C-alpha cells in the first residue's frame, strides 16, 4: 500500500473545520433572526394596541352621545371613520337597547379583537349602553416579518459563504497542505529513507520567524538524524566488538601460554622476566580496553532494550495521528498533545545517547565529583537490565558526599559490581532479589557499599575474587577480568581500596576513596 493511498486528501480537515463554522454560523444567524423578528413583531403589536387605545380615547365619547341620542346616522358615520384607520377591518356595535350595528368585514386570517364597554353618566348614575367590538388585522405585520426574514437570511447566507470560503482557503494554505506532506513523509519513512529530510513547501527566508510547523519539522528531522546516526554507530560498534572478541580470545590464550612459560623460566633470566612483565602490563592495558568494550556492548543491549518501548510509543502516536487525520477527527488540541508526547520521548532518547557517550570518555585528570550523581548516572544506564529482571535497587546516601578521582572509571567499577550482583541473583533464582547501595563518609573518606541477597561468594573463591581469570560463573558466561580491572582502577589509578566480603544474605563490595 503506497503512502498516497493511506493519506486522506489534504483539505479533509479543512472541510470539516469549515463545515463546523458554517453550521455554527447558520444556527447563530437563525437564532439572531428569530430574536429580531420576535422583537419587531412585539413592537408592531404595541403599535396596534396604541391605535386601539387612541380610538378608545378619541372616538368613544362621541359614540356614546350618539347612542344616547339614538343618532344612528351619526353612529354609522363615526364607525366608518374608525374603519378608515390603518389595520382596522371591522366594527360591530352591540347595543343594550336597540339593533346591532356593524361596518366592514374581517377577511384576514390574523386578527385581533378589542372590546370597549360603553356607558353613559346620567344624574350620578352609570347607564350601560352596550359594547363596541373592534377587529384589527395583523396580516400586514406577518407579511412584513416574512419579507424581513428572507432578506436577513439571504444576506447572512452570502456573508457566511464568503467568510467560510476565505477561512477554508486560508486553512488549506497555512496548515492543511503541510499536514498532508508530513503525513505522506511519515507513512513512507523506513530505515533506508531515514537520511531523507522532511521539507515543507514554505518560504524559507531567514527573516521569517519560525512557527509550530517549522519546530515540528526540525524535531522530526533531528529525530531521523539521531536514529540514523545511532544505527550507524551501533553497526560500527558491533563490528568492533566482534573483532575485539576474537583478539581477546587470542590474547587470553597467549597470556596463558606466557604464564606457563614463565613458570619454567630459570630465575636467573632477569632480563627475560622484565620483558615478560612489560608485555603483561601491555596486555593488562589491552584487557582494560577490552573490558570497556565488553561493558559498552552490555550497555548497548540495555539502551536498545530501553528504546524499544519509546520507539513503539512513537510509532503508535504517528499511526494514531494518521488514522485520526484520515477519519477527519484530528483536532488541533489532539495534534498538539500527540506532538508533545512524541517530543518528550525524543528528548528522553536523546538524553540516553548523551549519557552513553559520556560514560566511556577517559578522564584526563583527577577531579572532585559527587558520589550520588555517579551512582544515579550508572543506574540510569542499567535500569532496564535490573528492572526487567525484577531486581529492586535501593540507594541510601548522606548528602553531598564527594571524592577525588576519575568519575568515569568509578562509574565503570560500580557498573561491574552491579552486573555481578545481578548475575548472582539470577543464578540463585532469589524470590525477591534486591541490591542495596549505601553512601557515607568515614574519617574524611568516602565509603560506598553495594550489597545483595544473592547467597554470597563461595568461600574457596572469595580470597582470589579480584585476581584475573577468577570467576564464579561458567566459562561461557564470564572471563574473570571485570573485578580485576575494577580493583586496578580504584587502587592503582585513584589510590583507594576495593574489598569484598560475604554477609548473612549475600555479598558486599566496599569502595573507599
From TrEMBL:
Broad class of enzyme this protein falls into: transferase
Coiled-coil ranges from the UniProt annotation: 213-240
GO MF annotations, alphabetized: ATP binding; phosphorelay sensor kinase activity
Subcellular location: Membrane
Cross-referenced SUPFAM superfamilies: ATPase domain of HSP90 chaperone/DNA topoisomerase II/histidine kinase, Homodimeric domain of signal transducing histidine kinase
Catalysis: reaction(s): ATP + protein L-histidine = ADP + protein N-phospho-L-histidine
Entry keyword Membrane: yes
Signal peptide boundaries: none
Membrane spanning residue stretches: 17-39, 150-175
Top-level division of the source organism's lineage: Bacteria
Annotated InterPro entries: HAMP_dom (IPR003660), HATPase_C_sf (IPR036890), HATPase_dom (IPR003594), His_kinase_dom (IPR005467), HisK_dim/P_sf (IPR036097), Sensor_dom (IPR033414), Sig_transdc_His_kin-like_C (IPR004358)
Primary localisation category: membrane
Annotated keywords: ATP-binding, Coiled coil, Kinase, Membrane, Nucleotide-binding, Phosphoprotein, Transferase, Transmembrane, Transmembrane helix, Two-component regulatory system
EC number(s) recorded for this UniProt protein: 2.7.13.3
One Pfam family per UniProt: HATPase_c
One GO cellular component, as annotated: membrane
Boundaries of every Histidine kinase domain copy: 302-513
Domain HAMP, chain residue ranges per copy: 206-232
Name of the protein this chain belongs to: histidine kinase
Native species: Trichlorobacter thiogenes
